[in-house]
Design brief:
The complex is a heterodimer of chains A (258) and B (283).
Chain A lengths: L3 E12 L4 E13 L4 E5 L6 H9 L6 E6 L2 E2 L7 E4 L11 H5 L1 H5 L4 H14 L15 H14 L4 E5 L7 H18 L2 E6 L2 H7 L2 E5 L6 E6 L11 H24 L1
Parallel strand pairs in A: 3-8, 3-9, 6-7, 7-8
Antiparallel strand pairs in A: 1-2, 1-4, 4-5, 9-10
Helix pairs in contact in A: 4-5
Chain B lengths: L1 H6 L2 H32 L11 H13 L12 H32 L1 H14 L8 H8 L3 H25 L3 H9 L4 H38 L5 H10 L3 H29 L1 H4 L9
The chains are: A alpha/beta (258), B mainly alpha (283).
The structure holds adenosine-5'-diphosphate (ADP) and magnesium ion.
Adenosine-5'-diphosphate (ADP) binds next to strand 2 and helix 1 of chain A.
């Protein structure tokens, strides 16, 4: 049984103002295995976030079935950790309180909450900042809190929607390396949405290329280049060329069609 | 090099303006008061019509401390009068805050409350609180109750409107994050929506405390026989404009202090909002 099974997912948004329907996801079928690091790659507006939100339970598919751990997804839940594009932390809570928020909701006492959250503070390298508020930390540090918060719930899958898109280039590289290290250490299943070919190739061991709207799955490519990955190596560039060809094929096909 | 020499002379000048900033601020009020004193003493107007600042201060001093009974029956009774007004402000404001936040959060959060409750409240809102005075007197008589009722009316709507707004504009993604971490309906409200709406709710409370003082004084001028507003109106009938002015100053001061107190509570509660970035945003 795959960790995530998507069966014939269709999503139609009704554009009420213009009185018409917008087909956003068109028959998505995808299996994601446990401990996979899957990168969902596609141009802006192709429905990546929509697909991730359906897995997260934030949105309902118009038709089709979404199974996580063999169970039908009906609503959001702590078995699926989500890392948002903007950190989306509770601004009135400190880093450690944000990370331990899930435990607070479960009614666990403060001492134990902090005890368990400290492990994740260390994991994302924020020791010394545990009592800082989000407004006192940089975007990268806040995003680390967001990742720690998702990890603490020990979810069966972690869903990430372009979490590094708003960071500067150097911080982005650091965070990518750290994320890979965390994934190798903790062996979790990650679905990572990105529109950057490089990011997908640095992170994923499976790359799912989506088409322009309406989003379909163009191809799912396994990508087992050893880590740490050297983005200047010939193997990396070969893979990049292959992915870019897939995307280009798509564009020319569209151009001919129109 | 040049840039360093260019910048350095500007610095002492900057410090100079800062050092004198406090004094500068006092220049205009000091001139106004001095001009008023001189004009009042010049005899161009009868002193009863325009009391000099010194006379107002004298009246205020006697009202507070009762040293020479220049304020007659009010002499030494300032604390009693101020307390009477303050309690009405506090009573009406507390009631308005409680109900305003409750109703506002309910309307902002639940479609059902929005549909059932909001239209009625929105219809009552444009009626100026002052226009309720006749009904307030008929219903509650001449005492504390009509004043508290008016204060409540004036304070309720700002709290209500800001609470609704605060809840409705809570970042949608915070709610999603809460659901992702397993918050149930009640936790969503108490642990996410309410704290997120607090800045807006506090903005409403600050407007409300201003209306509360305004309406206490109005009520006391018409429907109550005690408090600073009553002293103000009563002194007007007896042509004691020094006491009228002393009452105006007292009301202004207490209103200012109420706002200051509320601001202090807000600063403590919303400390997370005011902290400045120590690490720089982008990194
Ligand atoms: N709530 C919504 N209502 C209407 N249209 C939406 C909504 N959410 C997304 N869309 C539309 O669906 C398409 C896909 O959006 P999205 O999933 O955010 O794309 P991506 O994340 O790949 O950039 C876009 O055209 C967007 O305008
Ligand atoms: Mg998106």
């Amino acid at each position: 049984m795959a960790a995530i099974e998507l069966r014939n997912i269709v999503k139609v948004f009704s554009d009420k103002r213009r009185g018409r329907d917008l087909l956003t996801l068109d028959n998505i079928n995808l299996d994601i295995e446990a401990n996979d690091f899957v990168c969902l790659l596609g141009p802006s507006g192709c429905g990546k976030s929509t697909l991730l939100n359906i897995i997260a339970g934030f949105e309902q598919a118009t038709s089709g079935r979404t199974l996580v751990g063999g169970k039908q997804v009906e609503r959001p839940g702590s078995d699926r950790g989500v890392v948002f594009q903007q950190p989306t932390l509770m601004p009135w809570l400190t880093a450690i309180d944000n990370i331990a928020f899930h435990l607070k909701l479960k009614g666990i006492a403060k001492a134990e909450r902090y005890d368990r959250a400290m492990e994740f503070i260390d994991l994302v390298g924020l020791r010394g900042f545990e009592h800082h508020h989000p407004s006192e930390m940089s975007g990268g540090m806040n995003q680390r809190v967001g990742i720690a918060r998702a990890l603490l719930m020990n979810p069966s899958v972690i869903l990430m929607d372009e979490p590094f898109a708003a960071l500067d280039a150097q911080t982005k590289l650091e965070m990518q390396e750290e994320l890979v290290a965390i994934w190798q250490k903790r062996r979790c299943t990650i679905v990572f949405v990105t529109h950057s070919v490089d990011e997908a190739l640095v992170l994923g061991n499976k790359i799912v290329v989506m088409t322009r709207r309406p989003g379909r799955i163009r191809e799912a490519v396994n990508f087992d280049l050893p880590r740490p990955r050297d983005i200047t190596s010939p193997e990396f560039n070969d893979a990049k060329r292959r992915i870019l060809a897939l995307i280009r094929e798509e564009s020319t096909r569209l151009a001919q069609a129109s | 090099m040049t840039s360093v020499t260019d910048v350095s002379p500007a610095r002492p000048a900057f410090r100079l303006t800062r050092a004198f900033g406090g004094i500068e601020r006092l220049v205009v009020p000091a001139l106004l008061i001095a001009g008023w004193e001189v004009f009042a003493r010049s005899g161009m107007l009868p002193p009863a019509l325009l009391p000099a600042p010194s006379a107002v201060l004298h009246a205020l001093g006697d009202w507070v401390f009762g040293f020479d009974e220049t304020t007659q029956t009010y002499s030494g009774h300032w604390l009693r009068d101020a307390l009477a007004s303050a309690l009405r402000v506090f009573g009406g404001f507390a009631l308005a805050s409680l109900l305003g936040i409750l109703a506002g959060v309910a309307i902002g959060w639940s479609r059902l409350f929005e549909k059932t409750l909001e239209p009625t409240l929105q219809m009552l809102r444009p009626i100026p609180p002052v226009s309720w005075i006749p009904l307030a007197i008929i219903w509650f008589g001449i005492a504390d109750k009509p004043a508290i009722f008016l204060v409540f009316l004036g304070a309720f709507f700002p709290v209500l409107m800001n609470s609704i707004h605060g809840v409705k504009t809570v970042d949608h993604n915070l709610v999603r994050a809460g659901a992702m971490m397993g918050a149930n309906g009640r936790q969503m409200l108490t642990d996410i929506v309410l704290p997120a709406a607090l800045p807006s709710i506090f903005a409403g409370l600050r407007i409300a405390v201003g209306s509360a003082w305004m309406l206490t004084v109005t009520a006391e001028m018409v429907a109550v026989k005690s408090g600073l507003g009553y002293v103000l109106w009563d002194s007007y009938y007896f042509l004691r404009y020094d006491i009228v002015l002393a009452a105006m100053i007292s009301i202004g001061l207490l209103g200012y202090l109420s706002d200051l107190g509320l601001k202090a509570i807000m600063a403590r509660t919303l400390r997370w909002q005011q902290t400045t970035t120590v690490q720089g945003r982008a990194g």
